[in-house]
Specification:
Blueprint (H helix, E strand, L loop, with lengths): L17 E7 L2 H17 L4 E5 L1 H11 L7 E4 H4 L6 H11 L5 E5 L8 H17 L6 E8 L5 H10 L2 E3 L4 E3 L8 H5 L12 E6 L3 H14 L4 H21 L3 E8 L3 E8 L21 H9 L2 E7 L2 E9 L1
Parallel strand pairs: 1-5, 1-6, 2-3, 2-4, 4-5
Antiparallel strand pairs: 6-7, 8-9, 9-10, 10-12, 11-12
């Protein structure tokens, strides 16, 4: 067996970050692009990570044969359940191979995602243009199933990726909205509750009330004790952030909709860093630890910052 040394980032050829949407319309088309993409990377000694849902990974794995054993496979259905967890995974992969060119296939958008998840997955795709420095030696291919995804989702993919490939190879995306697209998406309002809402104003010294409301709603929703504990901890962390950085207090709202328990913390503070909670905290980091924890405890986290303040909504699927 021949061992291929990893390709250094300074090796001849393109080494800057490439973020590419791939719109495919048949399984054959999907494999015609993804299989050579992975094979070429492996043959050049480039580490490859594939993060797809099982129904997309299965045919790719079969087509790759033994080469699939050399690919780091991550189940996107689990990793991308809360899309805010995806950027840390790519950052960890790149850091593990520092100094070398790497490749990835990431599919956070697929047919059947809940509407709220889909919105956050699209925000994630836009944020990748901010999160990855332009000189990072990562080539990231993001497949979109053009057979099953609605036209507006495919159009958004073209806005969120500097490059696109379909049947004629890669090319610059004429619709790319640039890195400022993230700031625009973060101001889009969240949908209003559809049912009764419990509301609690809180300030320093009143976090026990926040935890009590979270636990009461978790119990009413039938959550097991472990999930109820995670939810209470997450909401307590958000309220603490509001007290420390959002003007000394905030408002907690809680409600149920058809398929989820939703808790929301709002305050008058503003988050200057759109990637807060999506980067692993350093030992000496003072801010961002709470949101990092919340992203790992909750099924879905939605964060919006506007001129009037910040809203963080955590969703627990029932």
């Amino acid at each position: 067996m021949t061992t291929v040394a990893p390709a250094p980032a300074s090796a001849p050829g393109r080494s800057a970050y490439r973020h590419q949407a791939f719109l495919w319309d048949s399984v054959e088309h999907f494999l015609d692009v993804t299989v050579p993409f992975v094979r070429e990377g492996l043959d050049r000694g480039e580490p490859v990570m594939v993060a797809l849902v099982a129904e997309q990974w299965a045919p790719l794995r079969t087509a790759l044969g033994r080469r699939a054993q050399r690919v780091l496979n991550v189940d996107m259905a689990e990793l991308g359940r809360n899309p805010a967890r995806i950027i840390p995974a790519w950052s960890e992969f790149v850091a593990a191979h520092e100094g070398y060119r790497v490749r990835g296939i990431g599919g956070p958008v697929w047919a059947g995602r809940r509407p709220a998840e889909l919105v956050e997955a699209q925000i994630h795709e836009a944020m990748l243009n901010l999160a990855v420095p332009h000189d990072t030696a990562l080539w990231l291919l993001c497949p979109y199933d053009a057979r099953t995804l609605p036209p507006e989702v495919l159009a958004a993919a073209l806005r969120h990726h500097p490059e696109v490939t379909a049947h004629h190879g890669p090319a610059p995306s004429a619709a790319w909205a640039g890195v400022d697209r993230t700031a625009e998406l973060e101001t889009h309002p969240l949908p209003e509750p559809t049912g009764p809402v419990e509301e609690l104003a809180f300030a320093a010294g009143l976090l026990s009330g926040v935890r009590r409301v979270a636990r009461a709603h978790a119990a009413d929703a039938g959550l097991p004790p472990g999930r109820a504990d995670d939810l209470a901890l997450a909401v307590s962390e958000l309220a603490s952030n509001s007290i420390d950085h959002g003007g000394g207090g905030g408002v907690l709202r809680a409600w149920r909709d058809d398929e989820a328990l939703v808790l929301e913390v709002s305050d008058h503070g503003r988050l200057a860093d759109p990637l807060v909670g999506r980067r692993a905290p350093t030992p000496d980091q003072e801010r961002g630890r709470g949101l990092w924890m919340v992203n790992r405890l909750c099924d879905l986290v939605q964060m919006r910052t506007t001129g009037s303040g910040t809203v963080v909504r955590v969703v627990t699927w029932l």
